[in-house]
Amino acid sequence: MNDIEQIFINDQVRLLRKSRFAGCCVTISLLIAPIICIVVILRPSNKVVSELKQDSLWFPSAGSESCIRLMDIDGDGLDDVIVSLTDVTTIANEENKDENHSLFCKSFDVEEPCSGTVYGIRGYDFKILWSFRIKQSIFELVCDMIDINNDGYNDCIGAGRQATVVAFDARHGKVIWDSRQIKSRHLLWNFYNPILLSIDVDHDGMNDILISHGGNPTIPSNVHEREAGCLIIISSRSGHQIGEAFFMPDG
């Protein structure tokens, strides 16, 4: 082997060593970089999670069947939360009927079992802005269809179990009317799907509401002969029933 060949071989060996070293560096970098990123990300996020655990709202004896609505309650330009919660024992039909509970409901001017509560919660820190009691659990919350009290902001209508219907001012958490004005209601039936009609039925200057009513929870699920539900028109302004209920077979 002459000198030129020896020099060529030595150069190739050096290049091979350099390429292996570079490959090792790349591999180590790829392994270390994600670890550094995870550490950087998790350290502040752990602090946030721990703060949320201390500051979040917890309702240990409550559940919810409610949808959630986002709207700017306090006028700061950010979305807040409107949601309904209900005492879990009432959802399980273990209602408390004692005299003290009756007095408790009367103190809120709400029908028994007065187990539901609607909350307005500030979106960015979960502070409760307002709350009020309602009769029972709410399924539906509609907050984008009508300004009932003419203050320039849309109000909400909630509908749910045991003939619960309530219209309220979402900015202040004040009840405008409830289902006690609906003469055809059945106290055990549910209300569903309030919709705004395209006409003003009672000619009071405000389009009115159509709502469905039915679903007797006392009838076992294996009994297929059901009571007919009905459609009811409600005055948007006052909550009073307009006309008679229209009963629907299998409704």
Automatic annotation (TrEMBL):
Its main location: membrane. One of its GO terms (cellular component) is membrane. It comes from Adineta steineri. Keywords: Membrane, Transmembrane, Transmembrane helix. SUPFAM superfamilies: Integrin alpha N-terminal domain. InterPro entries: Beta-prop_FAM234A_B, FAM234, Integrin_alpha_N. The keyword Transmembrane applies. This is FAM234A/B beta-propeller domain-containing protein.
